[in-house]
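Hey, sorry to bother you again with one of my protein questions. There's a protein on my desk that I can't quite get my head around. No rush at all, and the record is pasted right below.
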Amino acid sequence: MKKIIVIIFIAFAGLLTFSSCSKSWLDEKPMSAYSPTTLSDSLGFEASATGLYNSLAAYLCWSNNQGWLCVWQVGTDIAYSGQPEGIETPYYNYTLLNSTDGASNRVWTWCYQTINNCNVIIANVESPSLKGMTEASKKAIDGEARFFRAYCYNQLVQCFGKVPLVTKPITTPKTDFTRASVDSINALLVEDLSFGATNLPDIEAVKSNSKGKLYGRANKYQAMQLLAETYLRMNKNDLAEQQAQAIINSGQFSLTSKRYGINTGRAGDYYSDMFQYGNERRVQGNKEALWVLEQENPSSVAGGNVDNAQQRRVWVAAYYAISGMKICDSLGGRGLARLRLNNWFLYGLYPSGDMRNSQFNIHRTLIYNDPAFPATYGKPVPLNNADTIFRTCPYSTKWGFYDPKDDFGYATLKDFILMRLGETYLLLAEAQIKQGKTTDAANSINALRTRAQAPQVSAADMTMDFLLDERARELVGEENRRLTLTRTGTLVDRALKYNAVANPATYSIKGLTTTNLLMPIPQSQIDLNKDAKLEQNPGYN
């Protein structure tokens, strides 16, 4: 592939994944043989559409840069770095954030790679020459590809603002890209997601195979949820309210309010049940989830997982490093605490009695559990100085996972809950707050608080700050916190208010300004775009 290509435009759609080695993405090779010539029947389209999910899994799992997941949490209002790996450092020490940033480059290249794959699928499924497929089947595939294209452009526009708008497959080198307006990007998002909301199947009408319904595939409610978020960013709050309300009123989903699944015989609560391995999918009893990216253990299912997901290493404390502690499933397996929830989150956010702050959801106390150390066995682990940063720090249990075949804890093989009804209520409340419907917003928030057995709130409480607090309570460990705060324009104010100082001070926020509401355009893209000017975002070099 020629190195003059600015964005990774692959002429072959289908199963394309990131290599975990250090090679430039410009040298990447397609990992499948699906090309436009194979997109002539349902099997070809199915294979290519499935490849989009595989590619997304690769994007969310990057073992060579374990700090990738921290980019979206540290330096916001909820967390600071615990054991930094490197790529996340410019996202709390913003003085180091520049156009050579690795995280920005990953977002840009993966999104445009996936967009081109989507464009190949869309162009072929919409071709008048395509025969042998029903119109409904064509539109379902089209909707799936359009949903993923919108997912990528939503990431791009939130991270970079104006970006090149590409809606046709690119099969030859192109070096004259220009940045399109945010309005034009938003228009494509609305078009694609509206198409998906109309033509993707209802969640109970998704395709099936020999094992049952393929709930992991795209459904119309995913498109509606992303459309609601898009409308909020566009300040079309009445339309956002309509989308969120339609999901809630569909009757297809319900807030989890009683215990279910594999651990009901153990101590716990119904909120924590949702995030247990074996409970996350709709077929496993989770009726709250709109979209679950399903993963399998590759030791038993070939190709079941891409790369080695690092979510547990990021979120779970490194308690294994304490003498007298053994790695175990009840503590979530072996973590590294690459991020540490801050004191505002841990001690100032949750009201008394809120289930989301229970011991089953935020793990706070460690008990020595290794009988090989009888002097300490069964006693509380004391909180000593630096140990509270990453060894004994409290942590969310949402990514706890233990595989007895992998005691070292290299990979997290849990499913990814990417959308659920809890967030739908929060999007609805946000739309209502922005329209001044504070009583309605309080009712929406109270639906979550009733489920969490937390104190009820009133219309007087309904502000954007409160809404963002409630998102942290409900969605910690799930939402991309940085994108939430940049979408709402609150990153600087909230990060400096709640998370400016870390312990040790090395990890404190430095240099954060409104410049950082956008990420830098990768310099490599600017340099290679030799036939047109691809402007850098203001404030970066």
In short: The radius of gyration is 23 Å. The chain has 16 helices and eight strands.
